[in-house]
Amino acid sequence: MTPEERRAELAESLAEVRERLAKACHAAGRSPEEVELLAVTKTFPASDVALLSDLGLSAFAENREQEARGKVAEFAELRPQAARRWHMVGQLQRNKARAVARWADVVESIDSERLAEALSRAVGNVLETGERELPLDVLVQVSLDGSTGRGGCAPEDVPRLADMITRTSDLRLRGVMAVAPLGGDAAVAFDTLSSISERLRVDHPEAVDVSAGMSGDLESAVAHGSTRVRVGTALLGGRRLISP
């Protein structure tokens, strides 16, 4: 496929996703401006990110630090002037904290105090060395089915973890993130996350982000208050295996 053909393919997919979002927002009585579209570019090349940037997107997500590191650098070379915010949405090991702190604008997968502590130290270090200029925005990932296989802390642990994050000077709490349980009722899961977010904002009014909904369930997420949907397949197609 030529770059021109790929751009046309992505443009068509983007238009379809935006139409879905617009319809979902209308059905929920919300404005489309209330919901950010986050392009999940894992396993796809930096050239696709560049084309999505040309089409007007500026928020991109990765779930593996090793793959993201090279892609972020390559994209910066391809589109040095482009507006962009990079999100880390996958499970993060503490020993990868410093590496992620060098390129991520947002980490959505904070699920333990130990990880938050490691990331806070890492961000502080790279701020001191000039490898980044601003504190790191973070979301608390919540497990909605009691399983830790895909990451996330228990709902009852969210307040304590949020309090710990806000005591640091290098992390900025922005909200919550969750993945709908496999085989479960997405509407029930997203309603639970909405309630967790509402309670969190009582003590942390700045934590307004609700990252929920993907290609298959974004309508349900929007109906239950999501402010950011994470879309990969519906935008980019089936997974492509690329060398990290």
TrEMBL record:
One of its GO terms (molecular function) is pyridoxal phosphate binding. Residues 15-239 form the Alanine racemase N-terminal domain. It comes from the Bacteria. InterPro entries: Ala_racemase_N, PLP-binding_barrel, PyrdxlP_homeostasis. SUPFAM superfamilies: PLP-binding barrel (SSF51419). The keyword Cell division does not apply. The modification N6-(pyridoxal phosphate)lysine is found at K42. Its cofactor is pyridoxal 5'-phosphate. Keywords: Pyridoxal phosphate. Pyridoxal 5'-phosphate (PLP)-binding protein, which is involved in PLP homeostasis. HAMAP family: PLP_homeostasis. Belongs to the pyridoxal phosphate-binding protein YggS/PROSC family. NCBIfam families: YggS family pyridoxal phosphate-dependent enzyme. This is Pyridoxal phosphate homeostasis protein. It comes from Saccharopolyspora karakumensis. The lineage of its organism: Bacteria, Bacillati, Actinomycetota, Actinomycetes, Pseudonocardiales.
